[in-house]
Amino acid sequence: QLPTGLYKKVLVILHDSILPYMNEPTLMMDFLTVAYGIGGAISLLALNGLFILIHQHNLEYPDFYKKLYSLLDPSIYHVKYRARFFHLADLFLSSSHLPAYLVAAFIKRLSRLALTAPPDSLLMVIPFICNLFRRHPACKVLVHRPNGPEDMSEDPYIMEEEEPSESRALESSLWEIQSLQNHYHPDVAKAAAILNQSLSEIEDDISGLLELSAYELFDKEVTKKAVDVPLEFEQVRGLFGKKNDIFAEHFTLD
């Protein structure tokens, strides 16, 4: 039983400053698996250490992807460790041997949560989803299904299901990304519109988007050069600008 603050401090440096210097890093298996099961930010931070044990020390974790799937909640786009989580999630979902139903469940859940995500997160997660389609072409049925649900109540995907295999994600369609094509932020709408075209085989580099913040987006907008807007060549007359407007007899713009 460690205090939450100490738990986080240990997990932040565990993969970099502790595991490489241990004679038997596998001794940390129980600690990391317990931390991974706690939930919230502690589970996110435990991913780094677990990745090293799985990748380098043959740790078997049967419910690893089920737990990773359960970590996807609305806060995932707002937490402090968002960049670290999506960097590792990208690694975990990079294998072409993963079943299509599992990847489709991740795509669908990320897309559903994206409906309430801020623009800086959307500009990161949409290329992330596109990369998953490139790695797993069997999931493209989510984009190209001709008879998708017309409203959310008809979507067969079960958002509350904890088991990815039971979520029925492959039976659904990606109407969430289609709705983001009408997003108020033009960059988000442009990014979401990529799915209307055939995706290239080359994956998008999302490393520069993981740390993107709302402040950077705002600075980018305010520093844009103003475009000259063409104006009417006829001088406006009256209140509503019409030539034969009765209001022009009683109101002027002077």
Automatic annotation (TrEMBL):
Residues 43-192 form the CCAAT-binding factor domain. PANTHER family: NUCLEOLAR COMPLEX PROTEIN 4, NUCLEOLAR COMPLEX PROTEIN 4 HOMOLOG. Belongs to the CBF/MAK21 family. Pfam families: CBF. GO terms for biological process: ribosome biogenesis. GO terms for cellular component: Noc4p-Nop14p complex; small-subunit processome. The keyword Transcription regulation does not apply. This is NOC4L protein. The chain crosses the membrane at residues 31-54, 85-107. Keywords: Membrane, Transmembrane, Transmembrane helix. InterPro entries: CCAAT-binding_factor (IPR005612), Noc4 (IPR027193). It comes from the Eukaryota. The keyword Iron does not apply.
